[in-house]
Amino acid sequence: MYMTQGLHRALQQHPDRVALRFGDRQRSFREFSERVARLAGALQALGMQTGDRVAMLSLNSDRYLEYQMAVPWGGGVLNPCNIRWSAAEILYSLNDSGSTLLLVDHNFCHLVEQFRHDSTSLREVVYCGDGAAPAGMHDYEALLASADAVPDAPRRGEDLAGIFYTGGTTGFPKGVMLSHTNLCSSGMALRSEGLAAPNGIYLHCAPMFHLADIGLSMPHWIEGNTHAIVAAFNPELVLDTLERDRVSHLLLVPTMIQMLVDHPAMRKPRDLGALRTIAYGASTIPEAVLERAMAALPGVGFVQAYGMTELSPLATLNPAWYHTPEARHLGKLRSAGRASHCTEVRIVDPE
């Protein structure tokens, strides 16, 4: 198994299906795959060799998706940087992982000079935002225009796919090294649990640097589905995107669910009939918030997912049928669910 496998199948099976939508940009799988292959070639031309770490510091965008596919396509290793960290923490992840290339958008350009000065590994910076690239940075679109498309690198299985930094109880964050098999196995488990369906549309509204979003998008790559993207979570923008793009699946944390269902824009007449599943997790959800959400979206299945970066990330699921009024008496609503496919759970202590 390998990360780009679903992309190859989508290109073979339905090359003209929409692969992504972001703002006014839309690309088919044929167009997206061509850009991925050219970006992989551009990164190789900048010095990326097999196993090299490539970082990205950016809000959500279509270029973030291209990065997530192009780095493994070109034989590299992903290091998606946490946009909520301090400059010192981001710099630590660059040095700790040995990242040699960095893609950065306009929101974080002001940090680049510090990274250049203090990083022990960084060699090249690519500007992946809109508009002209700042001085000293490579322009993303110019690189693609001049690059040759390259064949997919034969990295798969236990080869390292990415280093994903996660908070520890003390000190700096820890880099979790995940293989292609790790990420694909979790994706297959999520697909088998119904977190992706044929002809679905997944909305990236959680941060794309986070393994929760990467993990929940994996079954949609496997299924060959469309990816809709918003730059950052905004309740009204998310509602508009759900309606406009006919989104079927999305991931929200409980605070996002509360902001969504309590927003005045939710009270406007809307056609959200395409929405099938909302996966939620990362913290407990107040039962009153969940009740309001299920009442506001009566045709939507709510699924609680529990995981952690070290688990690639899925561990357990509390499926939609435990969220129904008929199943409340079973007392499962407040649980983290049962072990998912490809997962074993063992209780080691009564506490």
Descriptive overview:
The structure is a single chain. With 351 residues, the protein is of the alpha/beta class. Helix content is 33%, strand content 21%. It has helices at residues 5-13, 29-45, 62-73, 87-97, 112-118, 140-146, 180-192, 211-223, 235-244, 254-261, 287-296, and strands spanning 18-22, 25-28, 53-57, 77-80, 99-104, 124-127, 138-139, 160-166, 174-179, 201-204, 226-229, 249-252, 277-280, 301-307, 314-318, 338-339. The strands form three sheets. The protein has a nine-stranded mixed β-sheet with strand order 2-1-11-10-12-13-14-15-16. Strands 4-3-5-6-7 form a five-stranded parallel β-sheet. The chain has a two-stranded antiparallel ribbon with strand order 8-9. A hairpin with a 6-residue loop joins strand 14 (301-307) and strand 15. The longest helix has 17 residues, at 29-45. The protein is globular, with a radius of gyration of 20 Å. The relative contact order is 0.11. The mean pLDDT is 95.
